[in-house]
Amino acid sequence: MSVTARDVMETRFRTLSPQTPITEAVKILEEASEERGQRVFGITVTDEKGLLVGMLSMYDILLLMRPKHIHIWGEMKDIDVDGFIDEACIRAQPILVGDIMTTDVITIAPDTHLMFILDLMIKKHIRRIPVLDTGKLVGIVYISTVFQHLMRRMNR
Amino acid sequence: MKPAERKNVLSHLKVREAMRRLTVHLPRDASLEKAARFTIKYKVNALLVTGQDLEPVGVVSKTDLMGAYYAEMPLEAPVESVMMAPPLFCRMEDSLESALESMRTGRVHRLFVLGDDSPEAVGVLANPDIVGLLYRYCHRCEKSIIRSRSAGPDKSFADRFKVAEVMTPSVQAHRRDESLTQVMEGLSAHRLGAVLITDEAGLPVGVLSKTDLIMAYKHGIPTTTRAEAVMHAPVTTCDQEDPLALAVHKMIFSDVYRLFVHRDNPQNIVGVLSLTDAARIRSGSCRACMSSRIQVESAS
Q: Which residues of chain A make contact with B139, given a CB cutoff of 8 A?
């Protein structure tokens, strides 16, 4: 039996708009995790027509939180940095999803074979891939689902 | 007779000890929107533009992006239409001294570091990187006057310096009802990264930086908009009598490159203290390293 993206993709998923503030996006990531019953670290971004325009991942948000001058001040042990994290959160408030999302997104079709998906995830270091059917976003394949599927097959 | 070679701390340091690994670059047909997004996301002042084989072909800085905004260029335009070319390079084994000289003569704020075996750039070296390395070097140096001066118990050496000793004692300001176009003209004329925004009475109400302008450009805000609509507030200030350590602490917290300095009260702004000013006084400040003090302009 040929297993494709259609068999392992999640069809219930949340999306963001490029105009969504990052603070709101973080809440939506939390909600998406609760709905899925598993931690969600990345979410698709669509325009007003529902077309995929990017992805926002945990890594994008971490990049934003990283202090600009950290490479210079890393050895400043004589300086008290308590409260730094709260300040970084406040600074992130005016930023929108469209300001930091990744737009070079790798996508697959519903009939992409599981092993090809696996190969893409390993080669490109990606943990989730949007599935497009004639340009329309129809699902997301998570690396955890691919892994679980393969493990089930192994123990059959 | 051959003139004596002038030695200082930089003579022994190589580019590879101070450079940062190059993590992002853009193809020449990438949009200005993408360049603006990358400067926000990666918190960098400039991006390397590469050709088909990833060979470096130019540099697009926040200054170039601000110029595109000023000229009201569409965000879809390619970066190659505003980039500066060619980029200036150094090698990992070059001395920091020669790299600094290249930056001075080339009037640039950064050099890209070429790898040994490929035409691709592997790193970037900017003034703050050198300042950071000098700070670390000086902090560890046994001869450092900083160490001997800070021998007292619970006394941070940075407390020895006051902001007034280190700051630039002048301020460029624009009124809050001036347009973004007027502010961009001021930033460009004075080669600044940010200006103070004041009310009708000349009192400070905010700061407008190149980063704020690039965000405005990306968000489609017209250049005729008043400065107060885009500026960030409140103004992050310190007192000119504050210890330098306190000012540095504030800069770290605010993730800013500069603080505006007041005298007596926060409404009376008398100067600007940049991260580079602060780092410079803490680096190479002992007699042994005096000749290594570097002339650093604020980043573009």
A: 75
